[in-house]
Amino acid sequence: WVQEEAPDVLCLQETKCAVSAVPAEVRALPGLPHQFWSSAKDRPGYSGVGLLARTEPLNVTYGIELTQNKTKIPSKLAPGLAPKLTPKPPKVHPPRLRFDAAFRAFLRRLDAQKPVLLCGDLNVAHAEIDLCHPAANRNSPGFMQQERQGFTELLSAGFVDTFRHLYPEARGAFTFWTYLGAARARNVGWRLDYAVASRRLLGDLCDCKIRSAAAGSDHCPVTALLAV
Fold first, then answer.
1. Where is this site: Important for catalytic activity (predicted)?
2. Of 6, 26, 177, 213, whose CB has the highest number of CB atoms within 10 Å?
């Protein structure tokens, strides 16, 4: 699939392996010779991101971003909260709220230098249209009001959800499906994965596609097309 898509930059989340354990077939992907991997050193197999690029970047900050000639490209996996069986509605955990505020400030600093394209699993469905059963998930992690408000505040800080900007009424456009209950086959999903761009990149935005036919994970890829 990667070879057919032929991206200039490939952002990966949830790699769940140390740098030394990146599979040989990924290392050998044609057209993406510049590879940068970041994983949790103190928690092997936890989280992790990777950035693969067709051309050599000007700069790479491990754990957060790649800088191309005209654009900064952070690849991020936002912290989420696993559902718990509890008689009370769960609250958004403080680390998530701290992350949202700190990451928003970080992106604004990046945006002051160069336009930003943020790619990744942000662990939030922003609006009711972004998940299959909004009414049943009002108190579910990933759709709680504080999480959604955090995403709204990110957009208000000068950024755009590129898919929703181009397809404001598109329904059933999901990027995550639980493995339970044949959810993917029935398209009972959530849109948790985003390409978020600096507002001033809108003139260069060509398209944003959800590649739901690409199998192999409980998430599917999202492709952002920009003329930069």
1. 193
2. 177
